[in-house]
Write a structure and sequence with these properties.
This protein is α/β, with parallel strands linked by helices and 168 residues long. The protein has five helices and five strands; from the N terminus they run αβαααβαβββ. It has a single domain, classed as Rossmann fold (3-Layer(aba) Sandwich). Strands 1-2-3 form a three-stranded parallel β-sheet. The chain has a two-stranded antiparallel sheet with strand order 4-5. Helix 5 links the parallel strand 2 and strand 3.
């Protein structure tokens, strides 16, 4: 059950719709389209829903501004640092207003300063927007910003720490 929806009972197309509307994905490898600008990469996910180009552009620019990337909006991924590319990827993940962000090693390919910035962005999303962030990381330093930590070793849960009651 997620937000009162039994995901296991949904048909394939319903599950895809739920995923597109409620879940944003952030990957270790930014997966930005190289021939599109930052703003176009953010807009891309919104185009699926038939939003007008004007509305898409305005929303994408607001998201990039929120991540301190206004000056980078019309640059292609190759013109951005790793940290900037990851923030564009996060903005893209937020474009459709998800309730949940799934982040797979989002700091794995960026320097430590950029990694701290990404974690600060996630913390703001949780605190200010009420978005749930589920992050996979091998960087234990980053877990200090997390409310709950589930440690997994060899495919098994070996510890739980956080607001659901420490069980470690």
């Amino acid at each position: 059950m997620v937000e009162g929806v039994d995901l296991l009972s949904l048909r394939r197309n319903e599950l895809a719709e739920y995923r597109n509307e409620k879940i944003g994905f952030v990957f270790q490898f930014f997966n930005l389209i190289p021939y599109l600008t930052a703003v176009e990469n953010v807009e891309l996910t919104m185009s699926i829903y038939g939003l007008s180009p004007k509305i898409r552009r305005a929303k994408a620019l607001r998201l990039l501004e929120a991540f301190g990337l206004s000056e980078m909006a019309y640059k292609r991924p190759t013109e951005l640092s790793g940290g900037e590319q990851q923030r564009v990827a996060i903005a893209r993940a937020l474009a459709n207003g998800p309730k949940i962000i799934l982040a797979d090693e989002p700091t794995g390919n960026i320097d430590s300063e950029s990694a701290r910035t990404v974690v600060e962005v996630f913390r703001r999303l949780v605190d200010d927007e009420g978005i749930s962030v589920i992050m996979v990381t091998h960087n234990l330093e980053l877990t200090r910003a997390c409310d709950r930590i589930i440690r997994i070793r060899d495919g098994r849960i070996v510890g739980v720490k956080g607001d659901m009651g420490d069980e470690e």
